[in-house]
Design a protein that fits this description.
about 475 residues, alpha/beta, TIM Barrel, Immunoglobulin-like, 2 domains, five-stranded antiparallel β-sheet, 10 helices, about 25% strand
């Protein structure tokens, strides 16, 4: 006899706006303030951290460079994105109740898919892996210890930034082009992760570890390589998505997230960097880095917001855990960067050319009311948990223990009043601990789903939005 329980509840699940990360990278704020930026809302000067918080921001991302001595020759000679700056920025974020993502760039300057040069302090040991590992471990452990003692422990730590080339390369190896020594690379990543985990044990703090790759289309290969080479003790798969550079349209980003969730059950997936311009105009002579109009979103403050809303809803629908906007506060000032006077990003900020918040612009993406009914669901917990989510044409179930779903299978769809509206026998085909089931042709609405194995229903209260 088939015994099952249907839960009579509304079509909601435990995933909600409260545990989704609406983030912003605010690493440039102190520098811009020192250079005269006066962030305002409705014409009234206001703390930019408070502005973002008031509009729904719950996560602040901060980059950390090892020794950015190149700042000494710029403007007033102040350094930014060093440890002192991160301490002040972390305090501003946490005092307002926001979480912090600390981005260890593991370089003295910008780290990205073309540049992953070791800090100058470690250049002499770059080819001595054990000594380099020790330097890396001590650096991360000491940095986190200092933050912990100040009660500013980051909630998430990012090991490297857009590491599509590895990390901690000599200048010579970096300049040779693309290549990855996986024995070296995996040893360094695991050393960095070990430092985080040891700090957790020593302090009792809890820190999530994120890996970070640029380009959603490259996620599959890179995370597979990490996993294959023994880098597995991480919590978040992070990706940068700039449509101008990465070409993928928003639906492809959703598919990439679904793929990661299916192959690596239990790992969160986040967009750690993204942006969209609100204008093609300039407030200075610095070249605007983002200037390509995305299909369907001509430049305007309203379309900046709509593009972010559409991206975020796609991330939610495919089981992602957050979106972080890169540098909404990098406005134009009289100061110089490494690239010249002014900002290369003023057309992508959330502020107009007078540093006043664009109330109808991108800042509104965080306070939008999203539909979380299609987000990933976890049934039970631990090793025997099931992760359930849906893509456009199928239901996807992943588990670390596929033997729990071994045997003749039957799928049923029930309306919320308990009536069965669809029933079908299926022959499951597992791949990488993941089961793909075609979505039946049913009318739109909210349903309860259960799977029966040999007449027994280990999964009998999944929520499904058509």
């Amino acid at each position: 006899m088939k015994i099952f329980l249907l839960l009579f509840i509304t079509c909601t699940i435990h995933v909600s706006a409260q545990n989704f990360y609406f983030g912003n990278d605010l690493s440039y704020i102190h520098e811009m303030e020192d250079c005269g930026a006066g962030y305002a809302e409705n014409g009234v000067i206001k703390d930019p951290y408070a502005i973002l918080k008031d509009h729904g921001c719950n996560l602040v991302r901060l980059r950390l460079w090892h020794t950015p001595s190149w700042y000494d020759a710029l403007n007033l000679g102040n350094r930014y994105s060093d440890l002192n700056d991160v301490i002040l920025s972390s305090y501003r974020a946490k005092s307002l109740g926001m979480q912090v993502l600390l981005d260890f760039q593991l370089s003295d300057t910008w780290a990205d898919p073309t540049h992953q040069v070791v800090p100058a302090a470690w250049a002499s040991v770059v080819d001595n892996l054990p000594v380099l590992q020790d330097s890396l471990y001590q650096y991360i452990y000491k940095t986190l210890s200092i933050l912990s003692q100040a009660q500013l422990t980051p909630d998430i730590v990012q090991i490297g930034n857009e590491t599509n080339k590895g990390i901690l390369l000599s200048q010579q190896v970096n300049d040779q082009g693309w290549s990855v020594d996986w024995a070296r690379n995996s040893a360094l990543f695991n050393t960095a992760i070990d430092a985080v985990r040891d700090l957790e044990v020593a302090t009792g703090d809890t820190i999530k570890v994120a890996l970070h790759i640029a380009d959603p289309s490259e996620l599959n290969w890179w995370i597979d390589q990490f996993w294959t080479h023994g880098v597995q003790d991480f919590d978040i798969i992070g990706v940068s998505y700039y449509q101008q550079y990465h070409q993928d349209l928003i639906p492809a980003v959703g598919a990439a997230i679904s793929n990661m969730k299916a192959i690596y059950p239990g790992k969160a997936v986040m967009i750690l960097e993204t942006a969209y311009p609100w204008t093609s105009g300039f407030d200075d002579n610095a070249n605007n880095l983002l200037h390509t109009v995305y299909p369907g979103y001509p430049f305007s403050p309203q379309n900046q917001k709509q593009w972010l809303i559409d991206l975020t809803q796609t991330v939610i629908n495919h089981g992602g855990s957050g979106v972080v906007y890169w540098e909404p506060g990098w406005v134009s000032t009289a100061c110089h960067t490494q690239f010249g006077q002014g900002s290369n990003w003023e057309n992508c900020t959330f502020f107009d050319f007078n540093d006043n918040l664009l109330n109808d612009g991108g800042v509104g993406w965080m306070s939008h009311v999203y539909d979380f009914t299609s987000a990933t669901q976890e049934i039970n917990g631990g090793k025997d948990s099931f992760h359930f989510y849906q893509s456009e044409n199928e239901i996807i179930i992943s588990t670390e223990n596929p033997l729990l779903l071994n045997g003749p299978m039957e799928i049923e769809f029930h309306s919320l009043d308990g009536k069965m509206i669809f029933n079908e026998k299926i022959n499951p085909s597992w791949e990488n601990n993941t089961l793909h089931i075609a979505i039946p042709n049913i009318v739109g609405g909210c349903y309860l789903v259960r799977l029966l194995i040999n007449g027994y229903a280990p999964i009998n209260h999944l929520f499904f939005q058509k």
